[in-house]
Amino acid sequence: MERDLIIGIDSGTQSVRVIVFDMLGRIVSYGAAKHAPCITLQNGGVEQDPADIWQCFCKACRQAMSNLQGSISRIAACSITSQRSTMIAVDENGTPLRPAFSWMDQRKNEEVSSQLPDYLQEIQKRAKAHWMRLNEPHLYRSVFRFLPVSGWLTQRLCGQFHDCEGSVAGIWPFDIEKLAWSDNPQLYEAYAFPPEKLPLVFPPGALLGRVTRAAEEETGLPEGLPLRAGSGDKMCEMLGAGAIRADQGYITYGSMAGLEVNIRRPIFAPTGEYWTNPAAMPGWWNLEFAVQRGYLMLSWFSRQFNPATETNGCNGEQLLDQEAAVVPAGSDGIVVAPYWMPTEIARGARSVILGLDDHHSRAHLYRAVLEGTAFALRQGMNRMIQDTRQPLAEVIAGGGGARSDLVMQITADIIGLTVWRVQTVDTCSLGTAIIAAVGEGLYETFEEAVDKMVLRRECFVPHPGQQAIYTEIFQNVYERIYPSMKNVFESFNVVFENIRKEAQ
User: Fold this and answer.
1) Do 429 and 474 reside in the same domain of the chain?
2) What pLDDT is recorded for position 1?
3) Do residue 173 and residue 270 come from a single domain?
4) At 16, is the secondary structure helix, strand, or coil?
5) This prediction's pTM
6) Residue 122 is part of which domain span?
7) Among 171, 169, 173, residue whose Cα is nearest residue 182
8) Quick one: pLDDT at residue 308?
9) Is 72 within 8 Å of 145 (Cβ atoms)?
10) Which of 184, 219, 386, 464 has the most CB atoms lying inside 10 A of its own CB?
11) Once rounded to an integer, what is the mean pLDDT over residues 2-9?
């Protein structure tokens, strides 16, 4: 029987999706499960339950397998991508020793090594394993491996402590230029990761292992199924959107809103405004500008200001979309700076809502949040273009937010480029499946796989009148917010840090 199906798995912050694709990128079976909310602690910590991650993973896998029409033997391979910079500490059996440290975790370490240079001391202040070493020394000593979510799922499926190189960019001592674990011992001390306690890493498409009998019983995935190395979540999204040229950008509207571009040689932001990662295609690197908690905040907004979960077949965010669509560009005088989490482009900043008064409705504020996110992405785009000297010709968008025509049109109007939507907003799973297809030899090249498996659907062209309004707001208001309020942000942080300490 022909092996003509591929599974792409996306284990995200809010949910996990297990999607079976055919060789033309069409969805033939789908499974999904929503995670329990992350646990937010008073000290800035954010944690996630590994048991919930695995249970949801198994549920989504079983659902996708039960929904599959035809023989399971048609499945050629699978691949996993996951939320990055979330860390799971496990014992020699792969059993988690504590809750996972989420990528949103903001707790800081007061004790750092004076033997480290200043930039490594800054890393150690935020290092999750160092926090564990200081506060949970008995557990820290028991750790056999520190793993990303994708590495932990790989161990559960195949019994191997293996992962893809794209998952260990960020909070890990990984050399982005060499695409290998670093040879700098001070970096391991800063992160508090002993080298022997890290997984083996492989390039996209490499064989990580095969699904075991025990994993088949829990997940429904067939025993012996090859598990191919994927890449980081946003890099997979970019591939699944078909943005593989240097002049194509990719915008992701998920738990993190971001702008991605691919480059042939790695460059690094002088002050960390964007990140440099391994791309989903070998021989390329990826630049990433992030608006942390980007579309998590829209889910929060919907819960807080639109308690009706469904009306006339629409969920809360769809209803807000309908209301915001009739609000003019500029939200009748509201500008939002979406500093939901600390950012290097605006250090120490906190989110700002400028211009709110009593004639505004929730629709105005909702649209302003959408606009503010796109303004932030335009700012990041400008920084990356300045450094790469490679202007973008077009942008492709994906992630849950890309389902919204309003979001897509606002994005096109603010960044001033044509924005495309492809056949699925689940570009992350599709990109992961493309990697597995190439790794398994079903396509010879990534270019061929993208040509066959990615289909453009809708095009959103900038409206000249709206574009002019947004450019004026961006240049004369948005870009001035942080410089003019920098001292206020500093005072704010000091005052409320003192209040927090006194409350403890």
Assistant:
1) no
2) 58
3) no
4) strand
5) 0.87
6) 5-230
7) 173
8) 61
9) no
10) 219
11) 94
